Structures are given as structure tokens and as C-alpha cells.
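Provenance

Sequences were taken from public entries as deposited. Structures were produced by running a predictor on each sequence independently, with no templates supplied. The record for Zinc finger SWIM-type containing 5 from Athene cunicularia is shown for reference.
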Amino acid sequence: MSLAARVCWCRSVFVRGLGAAGCKPPGWRVLGAALLDIAMHEQPWLALSSFQRFHLSGTVTEPATATEPEMTYKVAISFDRCKITSVTCGCGNKDIFYCAHVVALSLYRIRKPDQVKLRLPISETLFQMNRDQLQKFVQYLITAHHTEVLPTAQKLADEILSSNSEINQVHGAPDPTAGASIDDENCWHLDEEQVREQVKLFLSQGGYYGSGKQLNSMFAKVREMLRMRDSNGARMLTLITEQFMADPRLSLWRQQGTGITEKCRQLWDELGALWVCVVLNPHCKLEEKSCWLRQLRKWGEMDVCPLEDGNYGNELPNITNALTQSSGHSQDSLARPRRTVFTRAIEGCDLHWQDSHLQRIISSDFYVSPSYQREGESLLFNSQGQPLWLEHVPTACARVDALRSHGYPREALRLTVAIINTLRLQQQRQLEIYKHQKKELLQRGATTITNLEGWVGHPLNPIGCLFLTLTEACRLEEENCLEISEQPGQSLYQHVPVATGSQDSGESYLSLALEVALMGMGQQRVMPEGLYAQDKVCRNEEQIIARLQDLELDPVLVQTLRKQCILLLEGGPFSGLGEVIHRESVPMHTFAKYLFSALLPHDADLAYKLALRAMRLPVLETTAPSGDVTHPHHLVSVVPSRYPRWFTLGHLESQQCELASTMLTAAKGDMLRLRTVLEAIQKNIHSSSLIFKLAQDAFKIATPADSNSDTTLLNVALELGLQVMRMTLSTLNWRRREMVRWLVTCATEVGVRALVSILQSWYSLFTPTEATSIVAATVMSHNTILRLSLDYPQREELASCARTLALQCAMKDPQNCALSALTLCEKDHIAFETAYQIVIDAASTGMTYTQLFTIARYMEHRGYPLRAFKLASLAMTHLNLAYNQDTHPAINDVLWACALSHSLGKNELAAIIPLVVKSVHCATVLSDILRRCTMTAPGLAGIPGRRNSGKLMSTDKAPLRQLLDATISAYINTTHSRLTHISPRHYGEFIEFLSKARETFLLAQDGHIQFAQFIDNLKQIYKGKKKLMLLVRERFG
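Predicted structure for Zinc finger SWIM-type containing 5:
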């Protein structure tokens, strides 16, 4: 027998051994019991009174291990009316579950009942003894345990001998082996202190170390207790709640104004839901409910008690309200009462189970309408005679959850069927109402929200409750589930016919589960307020869909699916998939994605119709939405300014994108469907990054690695990419460069016509810089030519378009595009000359010296030194180099320009030196230029038609004379500027500077005289700087 099977067998035997089926201890744990050696007392006490109550004691020996010695523990267990009411063990167990020693002793009693001798209560045995026997008994007992009981024995002896003692005022004496009185309360043993300590510990860990999982396990234990109708369930929940309310983080969060963490918030939700189950116990006593109500109100009135929706108040209707709801928002919503996580449980205390119609519904599968209905009974049954339950839907579902939780699964199932029949009738009536309003609503293009309270994301989880109730009735036995788990694709559920007293409907609980899930998910509902409430809607929707995906869609379920989808499409303002919806209704993208995938193999037309309808996201549209997707237009994306904010908008947009991607994938190869999906995307998706993702997805699907490309889907990808380019052209987007490169790749894959098209319409797609540096450059690259296998006319056509683009971009943005334009036009003389002229025309206006120097160097590299000189001269006119900018980045360009002029000849050098003198005021740079010009003869570039004299140039003659004078003047001015605010630590550096200045002075014929006069002048002007002037005298005399 396997361990799991052995454990289950032991539990059932233990229950039977106690004499009452269905009663078992909470937290029953067998783990480790098989390793224990049971050594019972020679005569263990076991007192029975009509097999109702008894006491069991024994000694449990735990064998030695490699690290631990043998241990012996004394264990005592008290039973009362099929319940373990108390346990004690010498191991000092600190857990809410029974220790292995208690379990071992219990198993011993179950498996070997004959070896545990049954005895009368000790009081009966004592009664049979005479005086000598009683004295001997007491003395032997004291001797055996004298260190433990002697003080107590002496105390009792003194009290018995005293006639006025309290002990002598009571007749008889207590007997622990006789059990409790028949009037005493009896319940399973629960170590309340341990429960408090465990919960406190888990809360202090703040969701770390698996504490959230442990707390959820405790909640599951409460549900198990409720299902077994164990009175400890409410006790344990009370203990847990007290610790939750004492959590110090609540005060901290409230003071800081921050929200409760999501994990903690989910635990609070489960706590509130459990209390609703507890107070809705159909068989609880009135005094119990009153006690719970007082406690819940006390907790709810505390300042730190979390609110139901996490952040704001709530305008949802009271739990006891009727099914019919107002069609508009409450005018006094700002004055709505404070709703805490316990509010629904408090409201649940006002509910009762005494309604005769309700009692008949849950007590029989065959309750149908009588042949003759009295006045008012028509509201209790549908046309087929099946009972209805007209109550606020979440409240009715809370009743179902309470029945399930308290161990009444059949009753819960019957009430679930009545609720679904009611929802069906409501759906039919809503369709009739919409037929009369359809024309007006379609003309108006908008509607009001008819459901202020959504069922998905609701605190009571009504749809999830109904779905679980129905599917639990259809779940296969555990043995079959184990076999199916080894065979992927097999369903875990089977069809179970609905038990009904009317004619055979042919329905199953499984088809009802699918139907109610679709009805609830398709409900048009307003987006709730607050981040947590909105996030809960998304999370609950995903949970329900995950459960739906566990259903294998056989013909019966497919029929249910098709029928409900058609009803949702025709449902008008009552359906989130109707033709007209409110601007702020919850989007249906996630739901529609599931429906599309489920319907596609069975009814493709219906699948696409539904998914296309669901693509809308009216909260982002500037005009009223409509159901028509045949005329695409792009609406400006706006952030909703109305309170409340849509905190989950990013998630909703991503789900919209997922739906579109699913349709694109499915429509591959179908031109008509692809075009329709494309139009829906262009109309409804307002995020450029999401459209770009769709374009990438479509491109990936259209170009599989192992087969030919799908041209139709490639064109869709290209069109989406073009839309992204238009959307992001005038906005900042950090992925813009990636988008541009991807578009060129996509257009290349489509073909030469696509490339020509984007080149010709570049101005509506790209900036001039992008068009020249990325688009045209990539199109004209060697890799592109090879990839497309172009012939000569096609290459020429592309080149011509690229050159035209380059010239247009250069005209529009010469600063950034001129160089790229020149590069692209190199092979066409006319185009190149045009681009060069554009640069010349723009040089005097908008271009910087850096841009001009860059283009000038490019010209020299391409073999146009005279044009390079002209551009360098133009660049010099924009430059201004101050006396102290001896590390300016433009210095290399200035030196290059002077070297270029010098190499071209004396005339070019004479032309640029005045520009240098005007623009450069840094003495060291000027002296460097002067020295370079005197080292070699000008005209070494060897320009054809030019004559080179081969002589070095003199600094006493033009043009170098002007440069020398400017350099000397710069040294003089720089010297005075530096001396104005010089510090002693810079004296040495200054002396070296003067040494370089002397070298320049000496280039002049009377340079030594000028320098001497200059030094004398410094001594007179700055004689106050004695130490510095001393250094000057030492170096220069």
C-alpha cells in the first residue's frame, strides 16, 4: 500500500474507531507515526461511557537515530462525543497540528483495540475498595510519584481534614476518566495560543519565507473545518482575524498614506470572504450570529481596518439589495459610507434561510411550479416550471459558497441551477428591451452602464463560485484523474445531467458551468475605482479563463459556446460585446482572445466577428465608439481625465495587442481577413509601441525560416510599420531608430517596389537625418542589392530615388544631411554638384564650423582640395578661439585647414591667414601655425597648372608677417591676462610660457629688442609681485 493510500485508510479507520463517521481532528497528521515504537503502560487507563467519552493515556518511545538518543514521551488524549477535546504530550509540541506522538497513540488504539484494556472510570474502581485497599492505593501512588505529587497530596489531606474547607462543601470528587457532563460543550481540541503565535509569526515575515503560503494554508484549514461542520472553524478564524487586526503594519500604512501590499491585500480579501461564509452558515444559532456581528462591527470600526476596495470608498450596492439596479451613477456617491473588508459579512448577518421558496429549492431536485400558480408565483418560476431565485446576484452566489463551505454540496448545486435560470431569464428580457432601444442607441453611438457592480473582480467572486460548484459536480474520480494525467489532452471533467423535475433538458452541469462563466465575463460593467480594484478585475478574469481552458470543448460545450457568443454579440448595452458600450466599461480583450481561440476551429466567422468587436478601447477615443470596423481611422490617444483613473490602462492595451496578434496569426494566408484585422488595428490601437510589436509579430509569422514568405501578411506588417513611422515622426520615442531600421528590413523583404515607395514618400515617414543616414544608406548598400538580386534598371531606379531623397533632405536640413547627401550622390556628377552647391549656400547661414570642417575633410579625402579649402575658409569665419582655449577641439581642424592652404600655395595661405588672425586669439595655437608655415615651402600639393617656387617663406613678408604680429600681440595680451590673477603655484608654468613667447619674438628682425622691452614693461607694471619678478630676472635678465 502506498504512503498516501495508507494515510487515507488510517484516517477513515480512526473516524470509525471513535464511533462517528465524518468526524476527524483538524490538522490530522500521520507523518512519522510509522517510525515510532509504542510502549503502552502495563495497565493504561481507558474509560468508556456508552462509547461516548473516554480518556486514553500511554507512553510513546521514539527510537534513537544517528544524532538523537531514544526519547520517551507521556501522552494523554481526552475524547468526548466523537471528538478529541484535549491532548497533552511531553514533547512540548509548538504547532497548531497534533504531534506525531499523539497520532501514534491514536493509531495504536485504532489498529489494536484489543490490546488496550477497557476500564471503568477510576471513581467506580475506588468505590469497590475497602478502607485498607484505599489507603494502600494512595500510599503506593504517592510512593511511585512522591517528587511530583507529594506536595499536592499533603495539601489535599489538610483540606479534607479541615471541616470548613471548600473541598468538603462539595459532594463527591472529580474524575478525569469519566468524561464530561452531557450538558457540557464539546468541540475538537484547538491550541488557541499556538494559532495566535503562528499567525503573528507569519504576518511579521511580511510575505517572505513562504509566509503568505502558510497563511493561505491556514485559511484552507478553516474551510476544511467548516466543511466538516467543526465548530472550531469560526474559533480559528476569529483567532486569525485578531492577529491580522493587531498587525503593526496597518497603522504604519495608514500614517504614511500608502496602500497595503498586494500579497497582504489578497490575504485580507480571503479573510473577508471566509467571514461571509461563516455568518451565512444555514444552521448557525442566532446567538452565535449575534456574537459574530458584534465582533465584526468592532473590527470594522477600527481606524486601521482595511477598506474593501483598497484605496477609496465604494458605491456598490448593499449585499441585501435586490437584483434590479439603478441605471445611473449615484448622485451622492461622495457621501457613500465607509466599506471595510468586513462590511459584506456584517451585511450577511441580516440574511436568513427561512424563505419557504429558498428552502424548497435547496431541499429537492424535483421542485417545480405547481400546475396552478397563485398570484405572484410567476416570479418564482420560469416558463419551463423551473424555480428562480430573485436576489442580488453576488449575494445569491455567497449563499452558494456558504452551502459548499459548510458541507452541503447538493444544496449548493440546486441553488446554483436556480440562479443560472434567473440569469437566463434576465438575459432574455434585456434582449427584448434592447430591441426596442436599438435604433436610438445606434444613432447616439453610446450607452449608459446598466451594471454598476461587475461580477468579475467582485469581492464575493460570484462567477468563480458558481463555476467551481458546477465543475466539482462533474470532476472525475481521483483514480481516473491519475490515469488521465498521463494522457495529455484528456478532460478532467465528465458531463453529469442536471437533476430537474421538469422535462429532460439534456443539459449537464458542465455546460451550465461554461454558460455562466461566459455570461459573467461578458457582462458590461463600469471600471471600478482604485488601483487594487482594477487590478483585481484583471486577475479574476485571468483566473476564470485559466479554469475555462481546463474544459475540453466537446460538441455539447461547443454548442453552448456558440449560443452564448451570439447572445453576447446581440446583447446591446447589457453585454460588453454589444454593438454600443459605455466609454468607461471594462474592455473585453482578454475574454475575447479566449473566445476567439475556442471558436476558431468550429465557427471561424463567429470567432472573427466577436474578436473584431472586442478590439475597441473607447476610453482612449476622442469620439463616441461604434461597432463598425469597416472604415479605419486613427484617433488621437488621450489619457482619461475623468475620476477615477485607469491605473491598469497599460495592461489593458497590451491585452488588446495580444488579441490583435492572435487574429493576425490565425488569418495568415487569408487576404480578406487580414485586411479586416488590419483595419481594426489601425482604428482601435493607439499606442505606437504596441503597433510596432504587432508589425514585428506579423513579420516573424510571415517569414518562417523553413518555408517561403507569406506576401499578404508581409504587406500587413509593412503597413503597420508605416503607421508607426507616421505616429512617431513628431514625437520622442527611444525606440525610433530601431523602428526605422526594422521598416527598411521589412520593405526589403516585401520587394523593390516597397523600397521605392518609402524613398519617394520619406517626408511623411522619416526625419531628413533618418532618411539619409539610415534609409537611403541601407537601401543603397551592397547587401540590399544582393538580397533583392536586382538587375541594372532596378538598381538605377533605386539609386535615382535615393539621390533625389538625399538632395531634398539636404535642402531641408543641410546641417545634418549635407555630408550624407554628398556621399549618396558621389556617382552622379550633376547630383553631386547640386549637393555641393547646397552646402555652399547653407554655409553662411545655418551650418556650424564643425559641420563645415567635416565636409571639407570629406572633400579633401575625395580629391577635391580646392573645394575643401573653400569650405574650410567658410568654417573659419564661424570660429572664435579665445586666448585661454589652448585645448579647444577645433584646434586640430584649424591646423589642418592651414596645412591644406599651405600645401595648395602662397595665394591660398595668404587668403586664410587673415581669417586665422581674426578667429584665433590663442597665442600657442598661432605660434604653432607660424612655425609649421616656416618649416616647408608652400604649394607641395602639386595642383595641376600651378607653379611651385620651392622657397621657404619669410616671416618679415606677407602673408606670414601678419601672422607673426598677431602671434606676438596674442602673447602680450595673454601674459597680462594671466598676471591679473596668478597664484604662486603657477609661477613656474608662467616662466615657461614666457620662454615660448621669446622664441616667437625672436622670429622678427628686432624681436630681441621687442622682448627686452616687453620684460622691462612687466617689471614696472607688476613690481608688487616681487617673487615672480625675481624669477623673471633670473631667467630673462
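The longest strand covers residues 53-62.
Residues 1-53, 312-317, 320-334, 624-643 have pLDDT under 50 and may be disordered.
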